[in-house]
Write a structure and sequence with these properties.
About 20% of the residues lie in helices and about 35% in strands. The chain contains 5 helices and 17 strands.
């Protein structure tokens, strides 16, 4: 029992120590910050020995995939292409790695616990993989933000290509963890996760009518849009975590114009 508790505490501690972006509000001074596409995949934290999800779950990557990975930490996204989350998740979260891992790339956006500014930290990863080749590894390209118009133009271009959004970052800050005002996610719609605590089935059609979700802050609401025909026939199960998009909140703190995106397994 003591071992199990220690393992759970270890996972919890890890989950609290990764870097997390805040949402861009539009009034921040982000001139000369760096921006990059926010890839909609599975986050992969390399601890020097193995890949872990954002919540500390082990990722069973094939040995050939992590060949030449360094003994220092990396943070990145396991990804294939835009608008492909379900496929990515099914590959990455499988405990028996398949040949489909050939579709996956590891896209590095940070080098944790390394001295220097953001550019110097990324340079450490670039130099390592320049000397230790791995065709599945990429360093996410960064662009300097000229002004807010430049930021909005880049966001529109990503959205048109079915991308999720962008990340902007103050490149002069040292590495730090937790929810940060110096790392911001910029998206057209916001997203959030909720735990399924009820599944409402239509008496007439016998398919999903809505999910009853509980948010992290305890707010409970019904999510009824965004599901495919197949998802309404075979809906998410009670206890599963789902991601949905929304645009604002009601006066009671419930998400407005919420729409289902996918189930999270990481």
């Amino acid at each position: 029992m003591r071992i199990i508790i220690l393992c759970l505490l270890s996972i919890f501690t890890f989950a609290m120590q990764i870097q997390k972006p805040q949402s861009y509000q539009g009034d921040e001074n982000i001139n000369s910050w760096l921006m990059s596409e926010k890839l909609d995949g599975i986050r992969g934290y390399w601890n020097g020995k193995e890949l872990l999800t954002r919540k500390g779950k082990k990722i069973y990557a094939p040995n050939w995939f992590i060949k030449n990975f360094p003994n220092f930490e990396l943070d990145g996204e396991l990804w294939t292409k835009r608008d492909d989350f379900e496929n990515i998740q099914s590959i990455v979260m499988d405990k028996t790695p398949s040949s489909k891992w050939n579709e996956i790339t590891y896209n590095i956006f940070e080098v944790p616990n390394t001295n220097g500014n953001f550019i110097k930290r990324l340079e450490k990863a670039k130099m390592w993989f320049f000397k230790n080749k791995n065709k599945h590894v990429h360093i996410i390209k960064q662009k300097k933000v000229i002004n807010k118009e430049h930021l909005n133009s880049y966001l529109e271009d990503i959205i048109k290509k079915k991308g999720e959004g962008i990340i902007i970052k103050d490149p002069n800050k040292p590495y730090h963890t937790g929810r940060s005002p110096y790392i911001l996610k910029v998206k057209k719609a916001k997203d959030m996760e909720g735990k399924v605590i009820g599944v409402n089935i239509s008496d007439k059609t016998k398919v999903l009518k809505s999910l009853k979700l509980e948010l992290e802050n305890g707010i409970i609401f019904n999510l009824g849009t965004g599901f495919t025909k197949e998802q309404r026939i075979t809906p998410p199960k009670i206890g599963e975590i789902v991601t949905f998009k929304y645009y604002s909140f009601t006066k009671n703190g419930k998400p407005k114009f919420a729409s289902f995106l996918h189930i999270r397994k990481d």
